[in-house]
Amino acid sequence: MRRAELVRRLESLRGFVEADPRREQVITPADAAAELLGTALARDDLAGRSVLDLGTGTGRLAIGAALLGAESVVGVDADAAAVAVARENARAVGVDVRWLVGPVDAALPPADTVVMNPPFGAQSRHADRPFWAAALALARRAVYAFSLADSRTFIARETVARGARIEETRPVRWDLPATFPHHRKPTVPLSVDLWVLRTERNAA
């Protein structure tokens, strides 16, 4: 599937019924999602692999992984209403994703590749930390994820501490649309990084 077609399909998916600022529920921009997924595909971490999407929200990354040929995809989110939207989105584009409702620090199945757009910790300090811990523990091959540029030191330290390595980090374009009542501008550009972390556990 060409990137333009993937972006078009991801943009067609429904968003949150009512985004919760406490959970930092923002839609992953379709272009950024396509860049993350395309990077995983090019590195042989997507097609034919098992994929776990932590904090899936309305399912853009999980559904995109399924569209690009992942063997199996699981999407996890603590918000049952968001998962209900994700389930509808998957049906709308005709892909099979297993959806789970619960926190990321619950007992979850490992996967070859973990993808995620976790909370950035802007509303709740350290809200992202359980996501990174879970991702590094559950990914057998690699983690592909977004974070604010301000988190670089923490993520680098966490990666090394858990026996993984940083394969790449690069900035991505991220224009946050007005989502919550306190947002005053139509869009706000954020300094966001795309991370590729190689866990190497049972990598084939």
List keywords for this structure.
alpha/beta, globular, Rossmann fold, seven-stranded mixed β-sheet, 204 residues, two-stranded antiparallel ribbon
Structural summary, described in words:
- This protein is an alpha/beta fold and about 200 residues long.
- The chain has one domain: Vaccinia Virus protein VP39 (Rossmann fold), CATH 3.40.50.150.
- The protein has 6 helices and 9 strands; from the N terminus they run H-H-E-H-E-H-E-E-H-E-H-E-E-E-E.
- The strands form 2 sheets. Strands 3-2-1-4-5-9-6 form a 7-stranded mixed beta sheet, sandwiched between helices. Strands 7-8 form a two-stranded antiparallel ribbon.
- It is globular and about 40 Å long.
- The two termini are about 25 Å apart.
- About 40% of the residues are buried.
SSE arrangement:
Layout: H1 3-11, H2 30-42, E1 50-54, H3 60-67, E2 72-77, H4 80-93, E3 98-101, E4 111-116, H5 129-138, E5 139-148, H6 152-161, E6 165-172, E7 175-177, E8 187-189, E9 192-198
Parallel strand pairs: 1-2, 1-4, 2-3, 4-5
Antiparallel strand pairs: 5-9, 6-9, 7-8
Helix pairs in contact: 1-2, 2-3
Identify low-pLDDT runs: none
At CATH level 3, the topology is Rossmann fold
CATH architecture descriptor text: 3-Layer(aba) Sandwich
Strand tally is 9
Specify the overall morphology.
globular
Give the termini distance in whole angstroms: 24 Å
Chain oligomer state? single chain
Radius of gyration: 15 Å
Largest sheet: 7 strands, mixed
Report the mean per-residue pLDDT as an integer: 90
Strand order of the largest sheet: 3-2-1-4-5-9-6
Strand coverage percent: 25-35%
* The first-level CATH class name: Alpha Beta
SSE series: HHEHEHEEHEHEEEE
Tally of alpha and pi helices: 6
